Amino acid sequence: MLLAVLIANSEGNILVERFNGVPAEERLHWRSFLVKLGVDNLRGVKNEELLVANHKSVYIVYTVLGDVSIFVVGKDEYDELALSEAIFVITSALKDVCGKPPTERLFLDKYGKICLCLDEIVWKGLLENTDKDRIKRLIRLKPPTDF
Amino acid sequence: MAQPLVKKDDDRDEEADYSPFLGIEKGAVLQEARVFNDPQLDARRCSQVITKLLYLLNQGDSFTKVEATEVFFAVTKLFQSKDNGLRRMVYLIIKDLSPSADEVIIVTSSLMKDMNSRTDMYRANAIRVLCRITDGTLLTQIERYLKQAIVDKNPVVASAALVSGIHLLQTTPEIVKRWSNEVQEAVQSRAALVQFHALALLHQIRQNDRLAVSKLVTSLTKGAVRSPLAQCLLIRYTSQVIRETGVNSQTGDRPFYDYLESCLRHKAEMVIFEAAKAITELSNVTTRELTPAITVLQLLLSSSKPVLRFAAVRTLNKVAMTHPMAVTNCNIDMESLISDQNRSIATLAITTLLKTGNESSVDRLMKQITNFMSDIADEFKIVVVEAIRSLCLKFPLKYRSLMNFLSNILREEGGFEYKKAIVDSVVLLIRDIPDAKESGLLHLCEFIEDCEFTYLSTQILHFLGNEGPKTSDPSKYIRYIYNRVILENATVRASAVSTLAKFGALVDSLKPRIFILLRRCLFDNDDEVRDRATLYLNSLGDGSVAETDKDVKEFLFGSLDIPLTNMETTLRNYAQNPTEEPFDINSVPREVKSLPLVEKKAPGKKPTPLGPPPPAPTSASDAYERLLSSIPEFANFGKLFKSSVPVELTEAETEYAVNVVKHIFDHYVVFQYNCTNTIPEQLLENVTVIVDASEAEEFSEVGVKPLKSLPYDTPAQTFVAFERPEGTPAVGKFSNTLRFTVKEVDTSTGEAEDDGVEDEYQLEDFEVVAADYILKVGVSNFRNAWESMDPDTERIDEYGLGPRESLVEAVNAVISLLGLQPCEGTETVPNNSRSHACLLSGVYIGNAKVLVRLSFGMDSSKEVAMKLAVRSDDVNVSEAIHEIVASG
């Protein structure tokens, strides 16, 4: 299960978060835990360079893209490698929507599209679409080209 | 000209900082949402409003029921628009608003229409939305369309239906299971993702059918799996099948191993890693099988991608626990990872190296770690310290460099948990490696000279008091201890006074000088410090060089062989009920309360540091003691020695649920039957248990306490008491029948009829066994406890335990037979080991302390032999323990 996808700005304010199978009372813990993880480790990290951590059987893969930091949390079949696949899809979709690694402003400008992308990529904790071109078409309700 | 240009730049900067959602307010957005009702829809504007709503929801704003309903109804109007972008937004916002069941009906018709639309993308999205908001009843209506969608030629539609199926399987499995033919077809799909989703769903549908999973794996491992993601799933399912089938006993081959091995050459790293990991996790994996997997992982160690390095080193770390030799080839690669930027990777590399390293590489390794320690966080440091502790126990000859390392890091900055881990390690090394004692104690002394943690200072002072007097030159520690009296807070000062007194009591030559120091403590401004000093000065003699009386030593420094939690509860009870009688320490129960089994949570739902603390254990035996002493018939039975855990006497979900707790007294046994009536239409009265003790000859029934009335769902107890010869561990089997008068109850009024019928209900038998006479009482240091017992009481014998599946089974059987407390974690048997030593301790009825050393060995034919050595306060008890094993 992909437990969470969370995108924050450089100051640690949450821009988008999607939790799956995480009880509401634990979300606050996760939120602050991830933000702290980012503050501690993401300074000076290059765009899309992946960082990884685990706690028991929960894995966290995170990175920066422009002004935003992106965290994905998973367990069981979503181990660090599956998560890196998921975060790769997310970063490439983001770059696609924004045209470049986004500033916070640009990210918020494209907020609606980004929500749609995330909706296509992760569906209630399962990875659904992995190809950015297909996602680009799907969010405009265009059928994929490869069929 | 320059002026306006600069100004323009300024403007742009401001614009870049300005958030499009600045000052966004829920009320205003809800107002804006009225555009959804316009007869002429402005698609662009509507999309913008939905974006704002999404932003609010994502920021944690919540809508009231009325607000959500209003927005939801307005959104449904947008289905009229033909604008694709807007329609896509509508699907998303409906999912995020998650409407309640009575509102769903408003959109179902629109969504059903979309589900049958000719536009593929409408179909896919409508499926996802419907499955998100629907319940079982609606599902049966749309099931036909979903089945079609699974085999739709548009991969997006098929995937949407399959992923929906995975989710629906949790809520309505009976419906989803009917789709397996379609899913089976989708597994053969040419579209990579469809295959991936179909495989996941098919496996979930069939996961309880081992044969079907095995067939699925057999067919797919031969055929073409298109996406790396699906391949990873297949590898996982394959290893599950391997686990369940085991090794072919004739050829020694493992089924599907070749498939796993071939995956090591796949082009996707994800698949390579998954296969390598699967191989390392095979049960009883051989070196030959491991080698190719380790080679692949070694390559991944030097990958440029941190995720791969992390995955590889994490897997190797696990392998190192069971097959350290197999990992040694990777040592050089792992050494270079010590300087990895990602600290998680570096820490894993170090702890792996510490497990695989040999004696000669210790020094080099320690040097590398020293450089590394300064720039990692405390939590990683603790992991390293723990790894060093176990390394030191493995190579005791290397204690010097390891102890030096520990003392160096002890001097550096660090938080409490980290320092505590180091101090614990040093203490453990001092205990287990005699040569390390003196240097270790001095390191600890130096540490308390500048220690900011009161808890650690007092712990070290206590330890110094125990170990310091036994060293060659005890006087050298006095300075450090007395400095505490001068420099520290009251808690530490009080501990220091006790430690000084211990030196005085145990080292006669130091006594006069210690007395001088203790007298100075009489002027301390803290009560506790003065009290302690006074107590010691008055009880240790006159300050001359003379041996301290043994009783005094026992009184002052003897171990309090009562669990402190028990002491605390008994004292609390005593303080709550004011009485003239002085507190009697013998009234404190000695049984160690086992922690309640913590329910296994889904692993990793939350990281431990964030979770709430576990609930404090409640005391069952205190409650029992109070309950029994409140019953006049049992009040003169004396002190309760032990209460067993409840033994179920009925199956789950029967009319009456009964379990029994065995209470052991010196001379008596009381059975407490806990009864629950699970039938609302019945009231039971005069409930007793008729016990047939014909197979328990030494017991004779002395009393029964019936239960007057047992209403529905209100547990209550009835008791039966037996007498038995004092002090002996009499055993036997008891058959039980529940007898009662049953009365019908009118459930509408809750009133019972006046007349009842006598009835009986057969319960299961239970036994009183030897373990019921033994209390689980742990000791903190088994070796010291063992050596302090009289060797003449030792009885040793050897036993054959016959063929066993594994040593674990044999060890557990003996532990539960004896009912003793396993010490120092020796109850855990490493996988596949052929010999094991286990330490047990406890108290036998009559308050005789018992210590047991067990050595197990297993030969190639799985025959287990056991050597049992017992020491006890009483030789007869040592013999009794042997009798228990011989007759068990």
TrEMBL record, chain A:
Subcellular location field: Cytoplasm; Golgi apparatus membrane; Cytoplasmic vesicle, COPI-coated vesicle membrane
Organism superkingdom: Eukaryota
Protein name: Coatomer subunit zeta
InterPro entries in alphabetical order: AP_mu_sigma_su, Coatomer_zeta, Longin-like_dom_sf
Species assigned in the record: Salvia splendens (Scarlet sage)
Functional description taken from the UniProt entry: The zeta subunit may be involved in regulating the coat assembly and, hence, the rate of biosynthetic protein transport due to its association-dissociation properties with the coatomer complex.
Keyword field: Cytoplasm, Cytoplasmic vesicle, ER-Golgi transport, Golgi apparatus, Membrane, Protein transport, Transport
Principal subcellular localization: cytoplasm
A UniProt-annotated Pfam family: Clat_adaptor_s
Any one GO CC term of the record: COPI vesicle coat
Family per record: Belongs to the adaptor complexes small subunit family.
UniProt subunit comment: Oligomeric complex that consists of at least the alpha, beta, beta', gamma, delta, epsilon and zeta subunits.
Bilayer disposition of the protein: Peripheral membrane protein
Automatic annotation (TrEMBL), chain B:
Compartments, record wording: Cytoplasm; Golgi apparatus membrane; Cytoplasmic vesicle, COPI-coated vesicle membrane
A Pfam family this chain is assigned to: COP-gamma_platf
One GO location term (cellular component): Golgi membrane
Domain Coatomer gamma subunit appendage Ig-like subdomain, chain residue ranges per copy: 623-768
Annotated InterPro entries: ARM-like, ARM-type_fold, Clathrin/coatomer_adapt-like_N, Clathrin_app_Ig-like_sf, Coatomer/calthrin_app_sub_C, Coatomer_g_Cpla, Coatomer_gsu, Coatomer_gsu_app_Ig-like_dom
Gene3D superfamilies reported in the protein's UniProt record: Coatomer, gamma subunit, appendage domain, Leucine-rich Repeat Variant, TATA-Binding Protein
One GO-annotated biological process of the protein: protein transport
Domain Clathrin/coatomer adaptor adaptin-like N-terminal: 27-541
Keywords: Cytoplasm, Cytoplasmic vesicle, ER-Golgi transport, Golgi apparatus, Membrane, Protein transport, Repeat, Transport
Annotated ranges, domain Coatomer subunit gamma C-terminal: 771-885
Transmembrane region(s): none
Top-rank lineage group of the source organism: Eukaryota
Region (Disordered): 598-621
Stretch forming the signal peptide: none
SUPFAM superfamilies, per the entry: ARM repeat, Clathrin adaptor appendage domain, Subdomain of clathrin and coatomer appendage domain
Membrane topology: Peripheral membrane protein
Family: Belongs to the COPG family.
Purpose: The coatomer is a cytosolic protein complex that binds to dilysine motifs and reversibly associates with Golgi non-clathrin-coated vesicles, which further mediate biosynthetic protein transport from the ER, via the Golgi up to the trans Golgi network. Coatomer complex is required for budding from Golgi membranes, and is essential for the retrograde Golgi-to-ER transport of dilysine-tagged proteins.
Subunit structure: Oligomeric complex that consists of at least the alpha, beta, beta', gamma, delta, epsilon and zeta subunits.
Name assigned to this protein: Coatomer subunit gamma
Native source species: Salvia divinorum
